[in-house]
């Protein structure tokens, strides 16, 4: 908040964020994620966009590696929330291994081979959409149509904004208005 008010520099804020790299607390990561999201939005159409994405990948990679994709024995609810948050952040930022795994799991989910757990659906959906094409969007809209639970329909509706190709944004808007 102080950086947004112009009191301290963005560089100082980023240095503070880096200090939390070994933090296991969900609330801390949620706050970091939120602030980096705001910063990412502010820098989205500037020369710093790629730098902030690289920073996100650097900061979130260690915790992403530690959490992995699958629940561990004795894990609590906050660990599942943290996993979803971290994988979503890494995926949106274009972290290569996360993107590849999200695409693999999405494909298996769509084919009915291995259904994604509820806590992994949003991060996987966001990742494949952000870096997807028109066929990814079509698949997502098909999943929406086939979903029998309102919760799943809502989940898909929430992630459609991740689509980044300008020509597909119109398709999302048309869907949203229908």
From TrEMBL:
Residue span, ERAP1-like C-terminal domain: 3-177
Highest taxon of source: Eukaryota
An example Gene Ontology CC term for this record: membrane
Alphabetized UniProt keyword annotations: Aminopeptidase, Hydrolase, Protease
GO molecular function: metalloaminopeptidase activity; peptide binding; zinc ion binding
Pfam families, alphabetized: ERAP1_C
InterPro entries in the record: ERAP1-like_C_dom, Peptidase_M1_aminopeptidases
Family: Belongs to the peptidase M1 family.
Protein name: PSA aminopeptidase
Lineage of source species: Eukaryota, Metazoa, Chordata, Craniata, Vertebrata
